[in-house]
UniProtKB/TrEMBL annotation:
Keywords: Phosphoprotein. This is Response regulator. SUPFAM superfamilies: CheY-like. PANTHER family: RESPONSE REGULATORY DOMAIN-CONTAINING PROTEIN (PTHR44591:SF3), STRESS RESPONSE REGULATOR PROTEIN 1 (PTHR44591). Gene3D superfamilies: 3.40.50.2300. The keyword Phosphoprotein applies. Residues 4-114 form the Response regulatory domain. InterPro entries: Bact_response_regulator (IPR050595), CheY-like_superfamily (IPR011006), Sig_transdc_resp-reg_receiver (IPR001789). It comes from Candidatus Roizmanbacteria bacterium CG22_combo_CG10-13_8_21_14_all_38_20. PROSITE patterns: RESPONSE_REGULATORY (PS50110). The keyword Phosphoprotein applies. The modification 4-aspartylphosphate is found at residue 53. One of its GO terms (biological process) is phosphorelay signal transduction system.
Length: 117
């Protein structure tokens, strides 16, 4: 069965390119433009992994992760990405990737490791 990945990131070119790379790697991909939209999507869609940016409008990734931890979906594997280490530190997120320094192939490898290891 095809694994379903949710990308939570405000609509930018990087989000589109990542979604296409994951689709070409055999994954089903859904996209939410902010944490609020992602939380609304989760009860209606079986998601196997969430990739979330920290800096977003309406509800940022840090607030999304806090709210996610209080839902039935709190055990869903996540990959946090940002270009701003300060934002990750604000939410005490220690495990994140820097978008500008991480290749698409590396992200696909991380996805595979989270899903299959």
């Amino acid at each position: 069965m095809q694994k379903h990945i949710l990308i939570v990131d405000d609509g930018n070119l990087g989000q589109i390119v990542l979604a296409e790379k994951l689709r070409h790697s055999g994954y089903l991909v859904s996209v939410a433009g902010n944490g609020k939209d992602a939380l609304e999507l989760l009860p209606t869609t079986m998601i196997d992994l969430i990739i979330v940016d920290i800096i977003m409008p309406i509800m940022d990734g840090g607030e999304f992760l806090i709210k996610l931890s209080n839902t039935d979906f709190s055990n869903t594997p996540t990959i946090v990405m940002t270009n701003f280490a300060e934002a990750a530190e604000l939410y005490e997120i220690r495990d994140y990737i820097t978008k500008m320094d991480t290749s698409l192939d590396s992200i696909v490898t991380m996805v595979e490791n989270k899903l299959f290891n």
